[in-house]
Each structure stands twice: as structure tokens, then as C-alpha cells.
Amino acid sequence: MAIVTEYYLLLSAAVFCIGVYGILTRRNALVFLMSVELMLNAANINLVAFSFHHGNLTGQVFSLFTMAIAAAEVAVGIGIILVLYRNFQDVDVTKAATMRW
Amino acid sequence: MTSRPRLATDVNVINGLAAVALFVVMGYVFVTASLPAPSGFPDGSITASIGYAMFGLVDQAAIESEGFLVAFEIIDVLLVAALVGGVMLARRESDGSVVTALTDGGRRLRGNGDSTEADADETSTDGGEH
Amino acid sequence: MAGAFDFVPAIAALPLLAFVISLFFGQYMPKRGAEAGIIATAGSLFLSIWTALTVAGITGSATSYNENLYTWVVGQDAGAVTLHLGVLVDPLAALMLVIVSLIALLVHVFSLGYMNDEGETGLPRYYAGLGLFTASMLAFVFSNNLLMAFMFFEMVGLCSYLLIGFWFRDDGPPSAAKKAFLVTRFGDYFFLIGVVGVFATFGTGLFAPIGGSEMASFPQLAEQALNDGAGAAGVDTFGYDAQTWFTILGLLVLGGVVGKSAQFPLHTWLPDAMEGPTPVSALIHAATMVAAGVYLVARMYGFYLLSPTALAVIALVGGFTALFAATMGVVKQELKQVLAYSTISQYGYMMLALGTGGYVAAVFHLTTHAVFKALLFLGAGSVIIAMHHNENMWDMGGLKEKMPVTYWTFLSGSLALAGIVPFAGFWSKDEVLFEALIHGFGTSGALGTVYLLAYAMGLLAVFFTGFYTFRMVYLTFHGDARSETARDPEPVRWNVKGPLAVLGIGAATVGLINMKPVAVLTGAEIDFLHKWVHGPDEGGWPAALSTDLVHYEELLHDAANVSASYPVGGEQTTLLVSAALSLGLAVGGVLFARSLYNAADPVEHTDKLGGAKTLLMHNYYQDEYQVWLAQGVTVPIARAADKFDQGVVDGVVNGVSSVSLFTGSRMRRIQSGVVTNYAALMTLSLVLLLLAFVVVGGGV
């Protein structure tokens, strides 16, 4: 028996919210990046679930592209963290708070 | 890492509640939605079809899809750009100073990454009252 | 060939052109702009004489003229008012045009001697001011509606300010100019309200009707309103009884008149205005600008005659001012100050004449006063040049032998001022007092009593006038010289003596235009001025404008209930008695002055007045009183208003902005710089948005 699409969506929502939780609460920039990855992958789950729902492969191909973009984004993100560390001597995201009022 | 991982206890729980609220709302919506039954894939190789779709050869794919040739090419360019960007960010100048974002009209506000002492006391301003 | 009336606007345009030329090109001209002024005023004089001849019927076909030449505001709706600029030429206007342009020409020529030859600087500004003044005054004279008259009334006030303050680097002149401007402006405020009131009431400000009944004038409408009722005449009296409302309007306009003609209580500016150059004093503060107020009342006489209260006020103010100023002139030490108080006093006589219904007498005195007062001021100017600008009469003396032309012309003017027969002042002043007397006895009720009171004050002032005039003459010209400068005065040239000679002859002869006593006694038809403003008995020319004497006398009798009666026998006896009385008082004053001051070395007798001397020297403390009004009353009110403005009005505006600033300074703390806080806000907003969609979509 096929699993109904709502459960896939629920799973995707859970993973997404875990990612959001990580962004909102964790202070280490690397963990921040990992949470962003979680969110992206939650979107991928969503795409694949709907691809199966409609019987069209577009969703799956699209999720491949999303993964490629996620990889590129992580590469640039690591570079940014490197510069952040060089300027603020710490990877704590709450320390880099100079763009403020 | 020579110590075992510990549960993070210095988190800001209040912010986390926003994430929990988001999950509650989204979960509620998804569980109470009534979608029709999924229509699954017909017989045929999914991977082969993905490959055909990636190169725009949609007719030869067993399972229907759209053509993604243009996106494929563009993602290639994107990956090259990301690579170059990453390298540029990590680079050091010839005199050892780093690419820094903390300038104010061209004037460096923070010392370069070589100095380990703090310019941490020196706060940078945005030209405002501080 | 176009008639003279088509060129009337040029009478004012020529001096205006001279103003522009002097202002911009005066510095390049050898006489610094005087040439333009002299040519322009000569042209104006020529055109004025031509106009006067046309009005007399000697040249041209029409004998009066009233046209709107330019519409500058068009009233769109049915009840709206249309504003025009136009020209009105009737006998009064033609006479005044000749007087103003003649005096202006003579003053321009005199200025060559007073200003140019004395090496004054800044003369282009001076001649520009004179040109603008002449243009404004002439345009005021031929204005055909009240608003245009008001505009030029203010312009002459401005030129007076500019010219009084000509020597602005000293302390006195700018202060005097400011005082003149402010005091006259105070009166003009009421005038403006009166103008607005006239327009609101009648819908028009025309002095005389245009084209029959095509456009009625406001005196006509007022008369109709009194006879037929306000509604029938289309006049809005704002809930008041028609006569009360017209009295109110007349008194409001009178505010401006009192200020401009230096009547009590707004007379304080004129003595200080003597800080300006003497030709300016002669032109503006003797002959023309101060005449503007009296001229305005004469122009609107058809309106004033409808309200006996206004006439009573005018007569009382005039009579009182005549006496009041004459008493102050008695103790003055400077030459021009005596003449300034004399001017105030003589304009009081004209107001007295207008108030008591003596229209011809007022116009006559206006004419003669312009001539002899201008003469006296120019003579004073000649003396001042000779004395190297020392005006104190106690430093003069014995100038009679050294300055014969000045002396004889000054004497001619003084005799005219004092009112000694057969000089001009006698005929005009005598007629003023005669009209006051007969209308005082002839009118019943309070009005008659007021007239008699004013007559008594005017009569007493004759004694003082004779006294101070000849005190001035004896101290200045007779006796021994009391200072070095008087022993060796600077000679004056033809450009000073010429105008003096012209005016000297005028002061002696201009009385001939209306020798009413002689006419009444001998039956000869020599009262020319009377005929001039009267018009032919068959009606026609000024009757079409309803600014003629026949109409005025009708109104005087019917609307104001003023009539004449001859208390001492018939008309001729009363005339002789009145003439003898005024002549006697004048001669008495002259002889008294002679007895005190016609010595080789006269002494100051003013100390014998005791306490009265302090009062008179301080001008009855009127100046201090007005300063107190300004500082003690107006400034606190202004401060309170300022506090309200700054506190409440500005406070509201500032409060709004401070609210904005405060909220801004609190709201910006959301930008804490910590990225996770931003992300938290975004998530929260997303949650709320989803909830909103759920609720709206009918989910919950």
C-alpha cells in the first residue's frame, strides 16, 4: 500500500522546522550552515514526494539541481565563515553584530 | 575533537519556540489536508528517464518529464562561480592581509587577520552616534 | 486729434519714467537724474494745464472724464466684485493735478540748488524717490475708485518713508522715517478695512458713475439707499441701519485721512519728518502728500455728506488740531519745526471746512496752502543753505539785508499764512471760518453746537498763527545777526531764487481766484473757484458725475440737515463781521509778535510761560504717549501672541515630529545586528501569515 503524500509532507515539515530551530538557537556558524542544509533537503523531500504524487519526473530532476546549488552554497558559505573568523576572531554568529543601529 | 559531544545547553530557547510554532502550524495544515491518492510511476527505468530529461531528450524517456537542458548548463556555470568565489574569499593578499569586509569608505576599521591582539576593543561605527 | 483726457495717464507715467531713469542711469547723468525729473514734471504740468483747460471747456469737446482703463481682477460670479484701474477727471481733480505738478516742478528745480550744489551724495536715489512720489501722487489724484486711491495712498507713504530717511547713515532720519511710516500705516489699517467695507457693501468703489447709470458710484448708491431703503439700492448694510453703517464706513476711511493729513492724534510723525531734506519737506509734507487725506474726503464728499456724525467728527478734529498745533508752534526753536506745526494746524482748517459743509472753502484753502506753505519751506531751505544747515532760529538774525529775494518771498508767504489781506491766506482762511460760523448758527441740535465749538477753536488758532509766523520772521530775518554764520551767510543761486520768486508771486495773487467777500459786497462775479467746482447751472458736465457743488449743497441740506443762517444781520454784514474778526485776531497776533521779537537782540520769552512751556516743548507728551502705547500695550500683547504661536501652533507641529522621532529611536533597536534575531522575526511572521491564511481559507 502506498504511503499517502501527507505523511511525506509532514516529514518534510519536521525536517524543515528542525533546520529552522537550528538557525534560531545555535551560535556556531558551522552548525548554522548544517541547519541550512537541513532546510534545503527538507525541500527536496517535498519535491520528490510530489513527483511521485503526480507521476512526473520533473520534481526529482529539480531536486537534483537543488542539491547542486546547496553544494555551491555551502562552498561559498565556508569561505564566508573563514572571512568572518579572520575579522571577528570567533565563529559565533552573535558576535558579528556591527551592522546595527 | 578529543572530548565527546555534549548537548548544547547555551541555546536561546525563546527563539526556538518560533520554530516549534511553525512546525505545529505546518503539521496541522498537512495532516488535515485531503489530497487524492498518489499516482505512482509506470514501468520503466526511473534513472534512465532522469538522464534523458536532464539532456532534453524527453521523448526517449519512459516516464514523462520536462526538459532540463538549459538548467543543466546554467548549473554548471553556477558551480564554477561558486568555486571561484570560495577560492577568492579564502585568499590572502601578497602582504599577508586578508579580504576584509570591515571598511568605512575605504578606511580599514579592523586590523588584518595577522594581528592576534584585539582590535576587539575597537568598535566600528556606522557614522552614527556611538 | 486726441483730447487731453486720453493723455491723463501720461501725467503720472512721465514722472514714473523719470523714476526709472534716475534709478538706473542717474549715476551717469551730470545732474544725477534731476534733468529727467524736471523734464517729466514740466511735461506733467503742461498736460495738467491742458486737461484743466479742457475741463473748463476752452479746448476739446468733453468737459469731464470717467473711464475704467484696465480691469485687473474680473469678478466671475454674479455677486463678485470686479476691480479696475481708471481715470476720473473733474474740476477738483484737474485743479489738484495742476497744483501737484507745479509744486513738483519747482521742488525739482530747487533741489538742484539744495542738493546738487551742496555736494550731496546718493542723488540718483533722491531723484528716483521724488519721481516715484510725483507719479504716485498724480495717479492718486486722478484715481476713479477707492481701491486704486488706496494703492497710491500707500505708495506715497512709501516714498515719504524713503525720502525722509534719505540721509540714512545718521541716527535721526531712519528713526523719523520709520515713525512716519508706522503712524500713517496705523491709520491706513482702518482705511483698508473701510475700503473692504465699501466694496462689500456697495459692490463698487467708484467715486463717480460711469456712462450715466451703467456703473453707479458708491456715493450714489448710498444716497439711494438712504432715500429708498437698502434693499432697493442693492446695498448690503450687514444688519445695521443704513445711516449708521455709512457713518461707520466713513469713520474707518477717516482713519487713513487723519494719519496722512497729520491730524490729532496721528500728527506726531510730521514734525519728525523734518529730518528729511527741505525740498522733500516742501513737496511731501506741506503741499501734496498731506493734502492727499483732505483730497480724499473732498473726493468722497457725496458720501460723507450723508452722515452728520462723520461731518461732526471731521469738523471737531479739524478745529481742535488747528488750535492744538498752533499752540505748539509758538515755542519751537527750529525753523522747520515751526513750519511743520503750522502745516498740521492749517490742515486742521481744511478739515474744519469740510466738516462744516464749506467745500469750496476747503478746496480754496488747499490750493492757497499748497502755494504758500511750499514757498515757506523753500524759503526755509534757502535760509538753511545760507546758514550751513543750522536750523536754530536763535542763531540767525539780520538775514534781511543779506538775502533780499528770500526775505521778500518769505514775507509774502508769511503774510499769506497769517491771513493778512490781500494775501492768499486771508481769503481762504476767512472763507473757512465764515462757512463754519454760518453753518454753526444755522444748523440745529448737537451738530450746530459742535460746529460753533470747532469755529471757536479755529478762530483762536488764527491769533496763534499770526503770532508764531511773525515770531519766526522776526527771529530769522530781523534784528542783528546772532552768530558768525548769520553774519556771513552763503549765497544762493538762481535755482533757489527762481522757484521762490514764482511761489512768492503766487502767494500774493492766488487769493484772487475766489475773493468771496468782495464778490458778495460788490456783486461782481469774481468767485472763480466757486464757479469752477460749481459747473454751469444747466447741469451737464460734473452733474453727470455727481461730484459738483450743486449736488453737494443739496445733500448738505437734505441728508445732513445743515443749513446756513446769518446771525448778524444779513449775509453781507455777517461776512464783514467774520472777516474783521479773523483779520483782527491775525493782526493782533502779528503785532504781539512784533512787540516781543522785533528788537535788535530779542530774548527768549518762552520762560515766562512757566509750566506751560514744558508741556508745549514736549508736545503735550503725545510722542511719549504713543511710544508707551507701542511699548507698554502692544509689545506685551505681541509677546503673548508669540507665546501662543510658539507654544501651541509650533508645539503641535513639533509634537508631531517628536512623536515620529521618538518612535523611530525606539523602533530602530530591532536592528540588533544579530542575524538569528532577524531569522526569528521572519519565522514568527511566517507563522502568523500561515495562520491568517488558515483562518481566512476557512480552515479552523
What does this structure look like?
The complex is a heterotrimer of chains A (101), B (130) and C (700). Chain A has helices spanning 5-25, 29-54, 58-88. Chain A has three helices and no strands. With 130 residues, chain B is mostly helical. Helices cover 39% and strands 3% of the residues of chain B. Chain B has helices spanning 13-32, 46-54, 69-90; strands at 103-104, 107-108. Chain B is flat, with a radius of gyration of 26 Å. The longest helix of chain C has 46 residues, at 622-667. Chain C is 70% helix and 2% strand. With 700 residues, chain C is mainly alpha-helical. The radius of gyration of chain C is 31 Å and the shape is globular. Chain C has 30 helices and two strands. Chains A and B meet through helix 1, helix 2 and helix 3 of A and helix 1, helix 2 and helix 3 of B.
Brief overview:
By secondary structure, chain A is mainly alpha-helical.
> Could you tell me the mean pLDDT of chain C?
87
Radius of gyration of chain A: 17 Å
Q: Roughly how many Å apart are the termini of chain C?
A: 99 Å
Shape of chain C: globular
> What oligomeric state is this?
heterotrimer
Low-pLDDT stretches of chain C are none
Our count of helices of chain A gives 3
Biggest β-sheet of chain A, characterized?
none
Strand arrangement within the widest β-sheet of chain C reads: 1-2
- The tally of beta strands of chain C, per DSSP, is 2
Q: Tell me the strand percentage band of chain C.
A: under 5%
- Number of helical segments of chain C? 30
Round the Cα radius of gyration of chain C to an integer and report it: 31 Å
Helices and strands of chain A: which structural class? mainly alpha
SSE order and pairing:
The complex is a heterotrimer of chains A (101), B (130) and C (700).
Chain A: H1 5-25, H2 29-54, H3 58-88
Helix pairs in contact in A: 1-2, 2-3
Chain B: H1 13-32, H2 46-54, H3 69-90, E1 103-104, E2 107-108
Antiparallel strand pairs in B: 1-2
Chain C: H1 8-25, H2 34-56, E1 65-73, E2 83-89, H3 91-116, H4 123-141, H5 146-164, H6 172-202, H7 218-228, H8 230-233, H9 242-260, H10 269-272, H11 278-287, H12 289-299, H13 301-304, H14 308-329, H15 335-355, H16 359-386, H17 399-402, H18 404-418, H19 424-442, H20 445-477, H21 484-487, H22 494-509, H23 516-522, H24 528-534, H25 541-545, H26 549-558, H27 571-597, H28 611-617, H29 622-667, H30 675-696
Antiparallel strand pairs in C: 1-2
Helix pairs in contact in C: 1-2, 1-4, 2-3, 2-4, 3-4, 3-11, 3-16, 3-22, 4-5, 5-6, 6-9, 9-12, 9-14, 11-16, 12-15, 12-16, 14-15, 14-20, 15-16, 15-19, 15-20, 16-18, 16-19, 16-22, 18-20, 18-22, 19-20, 19-27, 20-27
